[in-house]
Amino acid sequence: MALEIPKLSMTVSAVVTLQKAALEPVGMSIAMGGPKGREDVMRVREVDSCGPAQNAGIQTGDIVLAVNGKPISTLEALVKSFGEVNGRFVVQAQGGQQLAMSKNAEGQAGMKLVCVAAPVVTKVFPNSPAARAGLRVGDTICSINGRFLPTIESVEREVASEGEMRIEVRLPRPSSNWLMSPRTPRLSGRRNSGNGDASSRRSSGSGPPSPTPHAASPAPASPASVRPVDDFIQSV
């Protein structure tokens, strides 16, 4: 008898539709990982040739949001969820993908995933395309037009175009939508550089952001606090 494939609703993410003109600022700020650097997603780094993941349609760069409906946001949750499944199971990826697969003879799905920072909305400006679309401060962006965007620059390029774009955000969403007071809308974010955190603010409006008086410079990370990249990679 054939094993039943779980039929799951898209409960781990929601899609908002944003409309903007070609030169219109999108009207939000973002930070990679959020203000405290804690919002991560599991991104596919490698896919084994002819393995279960590849046969199911998973590609390098995809984001694994859930396994059999259980949300995945840490490597620990990833290992636990893949360890619990038997027979056929469903991997939910960005863009509403629901991909059914089974483990191979070695009990593996045939892919490696890496924990990466996700874009998080930190400001929404009133009467902007972002505000009209219903984006909220604290929203974790899983994809824009079906693709995960791993850097501030890639987000900027994607939202610079005119017309309609579909922005997928992780559930549960923040309970309220706090709007900034009116000023020049910007798309801004933070990137890591070397062993320390460097702030990078890029404008989708005009002119540089106003300097903040008495802003404290972030302390550089000590070598002991910097984890090797391999610590964030997990094979399943």
TrEMBL record:
Residues 175-236 are annotated as: Disordered. GO terms for molecular function: serine-type peptidase activity. Pfam families: PDZ_6 (PF17820). InterPro entries: PDZ, PDZ_6, PDZ_sf. Signal peptide: none annotated. SUPFAM superfamilies: PDZ domain-like. Residues 190-227 have a biased composition (Low complexity). Belongs to the peptidase S1C family. PANTHER family: SERINE PROTEASE FAMILY S1C HTRA-RELATED, SERINE PROTEASE HTRA2, MITOCHONDRIAL. This is PDZ domain-containing protein. It comes from Haptolina brevifila.
